[in-house]
TrEMBL record:
This is Coenzyme F420 hydrogenase/dehydrogenase, beta subunit C-terminal domain. Gene3D superfamilies: 3.30.70.3270. PROSITE patterns: 4FE4S_FER_1, 4FE4S_FER_2. Residues 289-319, 338-367 form the 4Fe-4S ferredoxin-type domain.
Amino acid sequence: MTAKGDMVYAWTTSCDIHGECGGAVTALLQHALASGMVDAVLAVCRGADLYDAKLTLITDPAQMPKAAGSLHCGTLLSAKMVKKYLGGARDMKIAVPVKGCDAMAFYELAKRQQINLDNVILIGLNCGGTVSPMVARDMIADKYEVNPDAVLKEEIDKGQFIIEYTDENGAHQHKGISIEKLEEEPEGYGRRQNCQRCKCKVPRQADLACGNWGVIGEKAGKATFVEVCSEKGAALLDAAVSAGAVATCAPEPKGLEIRGKVENAMLKLGDKNRARQFAELGSGRERLEKIMKLSSRCIACRACIENCPICYCVECSTAKPHLVRPGQIPPDFMFHLIRFAHIADSCINCGQCQELCPMDIPNALFMHAQQVELEKMFGHKPGYDMTMPVLSYAEEAEERARLNATGSDMIFENVFKE
């Protein structure tokens, strides 16, 4: 029997699953579905090509193998999809493989009662970062001098972005370039900016945290390193082992040490990138002026609002004509100030507001820089537990009704009245 805090090497026993690092994650998800622990798995599958990731709801265990394999050029965020299209998992049980930012989004939505986390099994995936699809294509053509359509597989390992591709003679080749070197290029290659700043590399908020870091010896490339992070995760792993779906063994002691070193190196790189990117943004009035200048490209398409996991209001204040004049392009700066006030203390640095902005406004940088400062001031660290930020205690529907009925924005009784 396993317990929270245990660590094992794990691999699938099925010859039908051809996943990364032994296929343990796919096998665990398949067992959760086949055993009835969950009603569905929300998986990331390959779409038209390697650069097209799509969320797929799988209810047939036999379909799980198609979700095997990593897609570092997939920049989706699963939590908002569960809230918008799957009823917040209130009436169904779902298993979801999650990156660090996905896991953080699940917690932020759960603490706001937008997702029922009791009905969700989170399988965390160690994440060194993701690459925007078009950037990946340009980078592979330019820096690797390889046709992007000839790439069979990509991975981030040992500090490199590595591709496996078919050359002009039909032979399989490998090529890797240092992530740091790619990200130093003026073309903006490498991982997304928010991924460069990320410090949630091993998502221990999930029920299980899985990856290849720390798998050495004869199991290297053939097994997944699994850290048990909750009783729910322990139950799934034990059940999969008992059913013969997954096999495990103790990790190599040296592997534990290597895993820790890899994670620490990634965290230090995150600190370095935060310092650099925040410094480029400036501080004080300089930062404000830069944000105002860059956000003046805004066309009010609202993609940042629609895709932010923290934005879930029934009635968005940016649509209030007395706050933001309708029809103005670019919108009044109040449009952005409202978003900052609403989200900044809980920003999880998922990057969706920047990734999906048609005007290439670095929205995630603005928001994350403010979140880091607010965390220093108030101590709230979003996305790691069910602790609420101060401004989240008011229920939106109740406050809207009270405001409309009284015309007052005073939440608390006026203790100074005579």
